[in-house]
Fold these 3 entries.
Entry 1:
Amino acid sequence: MWGNGDMPRKPRVEYAGAVYHVMSRGNRQQAIFRTDRDRETFLDTLEEACGRTGWKVHAFVLMGNHYHLLLETPEANLVVGMQWLQSTYTKRFNARHREWGHLFQGRYKAVPVEPGADYFLTVATYIHLNPVRMKGYDFESEKLRDYCWSSYPAYIGKVKPPQWLCLERVLDNLGLANTPTGWRKYAAYMGRRVEEIRHSEKPWKAEESWQKIRYGWFLGGEGFRREMLERLEGAMAGGKRASYSGAEVQAHDESRAEELVVAGMKKLKLQESDFGNMIKNSPEKYALAWLVRRQTSVSNGWIKARLQMGKATNFSVYLKRAETSKKGEWGYAAFSKVKYIKT
């Protein structure tokens, strides 16, 4: 069992110019905004946080028990800024309502977003459509433009945007200018998206990419994924691997495991096509399995599937046999070729 302060946590990837989809919920699903005054206080606190950190907010929405931000950090200061934002708001909320204790549920979620137009626009649209996707939304009597606790009214010229809200980047991704004409066209774009949700059987799943926003550890293309994996390596450097958890860490481990498999294949003079022709308990496969098992935390299932080892019911026995083999014994020749590999 993990002791206090030892619970595995998600590593935070911070770098200058990073863009994140940030989301946080109330503790035990409780409301973090009970009144309009609470919402005003949060936005005031967010404004202060932007002043302290230099953050740029490109989209936001405040719901009853959670909030979303599309946030850009010109400096690598996500963690310190979020700690200040949430702790300060919590103190102000508790003081107003004469309460104490935690307001937010665990750690906030911060998903790195590739700055490219497709991904940036997808997150902004997802955030602005949050009120519409809620169960019970009345499409006949309610209008998205009237939901004032969102950046959307500023995007369509209904209200003046605060200084910390940046409209240009989202509008530019649609080829629009930050002008009355651009605002009207953005409203038309969002109107079409609202209609898509209105006629969807499952509004919260109206777009496949939204599932990646909700459950993924990054949002971007393959090149961005590789970049984030490299940054994860740096974020976890110097700490114990067991101190971290989450989908991003799993992806990092699997990427590292794949590098080891490729390096081991090179040493053993194997091709990818060879795995299907080799017996499941071949010494070469177990040498590679030992290499991956020794240097990563990927599951045995991943190793067996990657090396085409089937169920490999005596997996641990054969791994130990390869590791302790002596010259001339089963597994020694293969094991001796890979045991010093580092990537």
Note: The chain has 15 helices and four strands.
Entry 2:
Amino acid sequence: MNEILRIKSISEIHRLLNVEKPLHPLVSVCKHIPEMNLDITNVNICFDFYIISLKSDIKGSIYYGRNTYDFDEGTVLFSAPGQVFKITGEPIIDLKGWTLFIHPDLLSKSNLHQSIQQYRFFSYDVNEALHISNKEKMILSEFVANIENEIAQNLDYHSQDLIIHNLESILKYSERFYDRQFLTRTNANKDIISKFEKYIINYFNSNELMKNGIPSAKQCGEALNMSGHYLSDLLKIETGKTIKEHIDLRLIDKAKHQLLNSTISVKLLAYGLGFEYPQYFSRFFKNKTGMSPSEYRNSN
């Protein structure tokens, strides 16, 4: 098993990258400079803090499936604490980019400590990065500059709130830009939705439910070569329903059909639908239909 290099603090990542010491122990804006050390390829690295990084001025078009997109001026990557990365090849220092490091302790006394969990793009895969236009890049960079200015001056009573305020703005705008990205990829999204529906239909029509249980968002995403969170958010934008909601509908439809067209016991039906315990199925069915499985069978 490959060893994992764990980076626990902001100071530690600054030393690793060979950049100046951070001015704040819990947050820093690292501008990309020629002296940066990126000789950390083929190493598994785990960071104990949030990372938001802009790679600027990408040359050429961005390809997604069989499509190309106009928003090719920059890419923003998001990483949550505990994620493991491995850099391969020979990375090139992007001198117009920046990286924002945020230790979770910075957020501990703010509402952002909890609300940051709602930003699911921290769990997207690298190939699901946010592609932004020059205008969008300027918006995010302005908030980053505000954080950098707050860090550079003497800290006072307002410093923490202002840093958090600008960080929240970065996250909210990033969420807006991701929604735009989903919309600009409508044709590619329809292809993904079609593949998802085919995967679910095949899964439900085989013995996979009984053998391996109800598919998870992660499992569905991996089947389509993407993260479960990204697939779920894409489905929500395009269909109004998340992966779980799509799967729940399939489960209810299959359960109703079997209840009305067979004499199989509720217990065996539950096992066949991938539920480990029949009572879980009965509770699930009643929550979705307002009736227990037996009541539904007897009412038709």
Note: The chain has two domains: 4-181, 187-298.
Entry 3:
Amino acid sequence: MRPGGLCAIAVISGLALSGASANDAKAPLTAKALMKNAEGKDVGRVDLVAVDDGVLLKLALKGLPPGGHAFHVHAVGKCEPPFTSAGGHFNPQNKKHGMMAADGHHAGDMPNLDVPSSGELKIEVVNTAVSLDKGAANSLFKPEGTALVIHAVPDDYKSDPAGNAGARIACGVIE
């Protein structure tokens, strides 16, 4: 794990995930989140794959407003508009919000997304503070579930508890 469990945006091509090769019997753990906006319209999906450092999130989004948007894991697996049902940020270690927090950040804090004018975005993000292992304290598979949320504006990476990220514009339950 990287110091402080920071997230990193990574373009990964041709790398074996979790050190697995085609000959390994055990496939990496996976999950997905189907993203919807407040009107219930499909705005894409996020595929999650366990990697050695945490979880790789592969985003394929469409129909989002151009510009910067906060992107977080939220603590409840519910996506009822206006998505406040998803609760606060996923924070199993009771840290302060913000990737620049001195004592570490919420496990659900991730880099902002920059959606181009087309409204379509394909990007990969690694979150080193979460796990898909159902037995781990930082597992995204907890009894209440977890969700991915995209906010109206960018996260400022410092304001507690939510980074002044504005309204929740898209949500998907991690399954």
Note: The radius of gyration is 15 Å.
